[in-house]
Every structure is written in C-alpha cells, then in structure tokens.
C-alpha cells in the first residue's frame, strides 16, 4: 500500500481509509473536486498489492458462455494494447467498500462486528477510462446463453483463519456485466497505479466495491451460475433476521452522506460557516440532503451544488451559524430519487455491511 500521509489517511492493516477532511483542507484551503486525486484515494486490499509488468500482462477469457467453450488452457487472450485498440469510454464513478461505515454498527448501535473498522472514508470517486466489459466479452465470442461472468484478481490467495479462499474473485451477473461495467486502465487520466489495480481493473458502478476486481487476470464466462467465497461466504447479509445461508449476494450500495469535516472539528462561534459534504446512492441520483444541528429534532435542506448523477456523488453545502460554544452534533441525511432516505438505524448484519444510517458528527464550537 502507498505511503500514508497521516493528514489524508487512517491506516487499517492492509487498508487505507480516506479522511473526509482531506477533501477540504481548511475552511478556505485547497479543495478536492468531484474526483479524488489518486494519492488520496482509499485502498482496500484483501492481501497485498502485486506489481505486474504491463507488457507481459494478459487478460484470459474462457468458459461455456463463449463460442466454442474454450477451456482455461485455450483462453481467448487480450494484451493491454489490444484493449486500448477497442473503443474507449470515460466514466466518473464511485467505488465504495460494502463495509464502509462499519465502525458505526458498534459506535452507534452497540454491535461488535469483525472486519475493517471504517468510519465513512472507505469510498472515493474517480474518472475511469477503459473499455466496456460488454465490448471485450463480445470480442471474445459471448453467446446468448451466458449467465455469469467471473473476474479473478492476480493478487495473492486470501488466507484467513487457516482457510485458503484462493485468489480474490466474484461472479457478476451477465446483465450488470453488459450494462455499465468497465475494464479500466486509467484513473484520473493517468495509467492505473499498482494500489488501484494496475494494469487493468473492473469498475462496477453503484455496486459494492468488491465487485470492482483489481489486477484482473482472467474472466470465466459461464452458461450456468458461478460461485466463489465472495458471493457465498462473504458479502451477503448474515445474522438475526437474515436467512441461515445469508441473504442474496450484495449488489447496490445504499444512500449515504458525509461532511467534509474532521470528527471534532473546531468552528468559531458567532460566524457563518459554509459546511460542505457529499451524498450518494448506488441505486438512484440523490434528490435531497437535509442537515440538522440540534440532535435530529429539526432538519433544513442543504444546497445541492451540482446536478445529481447516478454513478457519482453529489456535492452539497449548508450555512451554519453556531451561537453557543461547546460540543455540538451535526447530522446529514440524504434521500435518493428512488425514494430511499437514510434511516435512524441500519439493519444489523454480522459482517457489518451496508451501514447507511444517519451519523452524528461531533464538532466543537469555540
Ligand atoms: N480486487 C482484488 N483483486 N483484490 C482485492 O483485495 N478488494 C476489493 C476491490 N477489488 C480487492 C479487489 C474491495 S473489497 C474494494 S472495496 C475495492 O477493490 C477497493 O478499491 P481501491 O483499493 O481501488 O479503493
Ligand atoms: Mo470492500
């Protein structure tokens, strides 16, 4: 993982969490635009970052969903230049870890959950360039019978608790694969960096981050459902109120919002502060953001500072003039055009996925 400037990241084991205040260094300091610079973008690695020679890298496609059903040893191969020769697409899209916000299951709802204790910084937006997965699947001989597509990463096997789960890989239903999934080779107009999946990663807009497989080396295309631990043992809802084998594999991220402020940020009393934040949803553009400065008793709409989009976050702002010094709690609450609003409590699940409840953000007024 990249070196971690403490002003930008909170380290968690092999992961690096973006600090929200790093999007806005100070009240009037430098501001990060819609897309997060690569050096400030969060990193989530199950194991370690592999260094792959782009000249020797090959993407191998095989399986019963391709013409002639090539076996792994007879895969259809693409090099980086082959991908670059196909029509390219640029797409501004978020990647958000399914576990983003997980620490609030404990901090707000009293549930201890295992896994990376993210606050809200397991997310970032970037401008991706690459070739649509649909394009590559068709070039490889996709048949009408294909059901599932299984991209596999070239990172080390994931070994935990004495079990080797093999390389990180997760099946994607063919409908999503053909809809908007991108095989990206650039991030913010530069070649991908090793931490973010160089030379080529998948970007699956709106879906849990694990769908966006980094360092992709092969893609199996099958005319039957495929399984991997990442859609059976992990990334389902487990625990009370959920089916014994877990709910359906997780797909879209839920509606959320965050302030571009440090926890416990200090603000001056008696003057108006323009508070900034971002809101997003994996299923629909954001329609409304409301802010409360009185513990959730009253809410006022924030200003949406740009047109909302489906795949990206929307920046918003809110003027607040705190009168009285002391500790205050700010809250933001987003609603998307599908009608989903951030709830007071998130549905508990054993692994702490999809925490989308309203979060109290403490600030100190001086
Ligand atoms: N792909 C591979 N091969 N190995 C991984 O560990 N982590 C996934 C996904 N793709 C992962 C992966 C998870 S859980 C997330 S949230 C995103 O990558 C994070 O992408 P980023 O590190 O570029 O922010
Ligand atoms: Mo993740």
From TrEMBL:
Heme in keyword set: no
One protein family per Pfam: Oxidored_molyb
Domain Oxidoreductase molybdopterin-binding per the UniProt entry, residue ranges: 46-230
GO BP annotations listed: sulfur compound metabolic process
Listed GO MF terms: heme binding; molybdenum ion binding; molybdopterin cofactor binding; sulfite oxidase activity
Cofactor: Mo-molybdopterin
Origin superkingdom: Bacteria
Electron transport found in the keyword field: no
Keywords annotated in UniProt: Metal-binding, Molybdenum, Oxidoreductase
InterPro entries named in the record: Ig_E-set (IPR014756), MoCF_OxRdtse_dimer (IPR005066), Mopterin_OxRdtase_euk (IPR008335), OxRdtase_Mopterin-bd_dom (IPR000572), OxRdtase_Mopterin-bd_sf (IPR036374)
Domain named Moybdenum cofactor oxidoreductase dimerisation: residues: 270-352
PANTHER family found in the cross-reference section: SULFITE OXIDASE, MITOCHONDRIAL, SULFITE REDUCTASE
Protein name: Sulfite oxidase
Organism: Streptomyces rubellomurinus (strain ATCC 31215)
């Amino acid at each position: 993982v990249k070196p971690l400037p403490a002003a930008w990241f909170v380290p968690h084991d092999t992961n690096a969490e973006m600090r929200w205040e790093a999007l806005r260094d100070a009240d009037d300091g430098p501001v990060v635009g819609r897309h997060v610079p690569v050096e400030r973008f969060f990193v989530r690695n199950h194991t370690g970052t592999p260094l792959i020679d782009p000249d020797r890298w090959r993407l191998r496609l095989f399986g019963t969903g391709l013409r002639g059903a090539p076996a792994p040893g007879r895969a259809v191969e693409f090099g980086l230049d082959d991908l670059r020769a196909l029509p390219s697409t640029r797409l501004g899209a978020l990647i958000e870890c399914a576990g983003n916000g997980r620490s609030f299951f404990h901090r707000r709802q009293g549930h201890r959950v295992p896994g990376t204790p993210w606050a809200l910084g397991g997310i970032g937006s970037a401008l991706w360039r690459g070739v649509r997965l649909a394009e590559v699947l068709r070039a490889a001989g996709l048949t009408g019978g294909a059901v599932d597509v299984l991209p596999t990463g070239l990172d080390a096997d994931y070994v935990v608790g004495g079990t080797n789960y093999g390389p990180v890989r997760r099946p994607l239903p063919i409908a999503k694969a053909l809809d908007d999934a991108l095989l990206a080779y650039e991030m913010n107009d530069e070649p991908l960096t090793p931490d973010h999946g160089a030379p080529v990663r998948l970007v699956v807009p709106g879906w849990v981050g694990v769908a966006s497989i980094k360092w992709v080396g092969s893609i199996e295309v099958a005319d039957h459902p495929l399984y991997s631990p990442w859609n059976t043992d992990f990334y389902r809802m487990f625990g009370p109120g959920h089916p014994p084998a877990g709910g359906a594999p997780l797909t879209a991220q839920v509606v959320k919002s965050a302030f571009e402020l440090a926890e416990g940020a200090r603000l001056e009393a008696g003057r108006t502060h323009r508070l900034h934040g971002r809101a997003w949803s994996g299923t629909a553009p954001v329609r409304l953001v409301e802010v409360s400065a009185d513990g959730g008793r009253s809410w006022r709409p924030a200003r949406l500072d740009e047109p909302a989009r489906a795949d990206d976050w929307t920046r918003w702002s809110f003027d607040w003039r705190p009168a009285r010094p002391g500790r205050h709690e700010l809250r933001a609450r987003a609603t998307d055009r599908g009608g989903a609003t951030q709830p007071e409590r998130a549905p508990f699940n054993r692994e702490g996925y999809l925490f989308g409840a309203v979060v109290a953000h403490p600030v100190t007024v001086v």
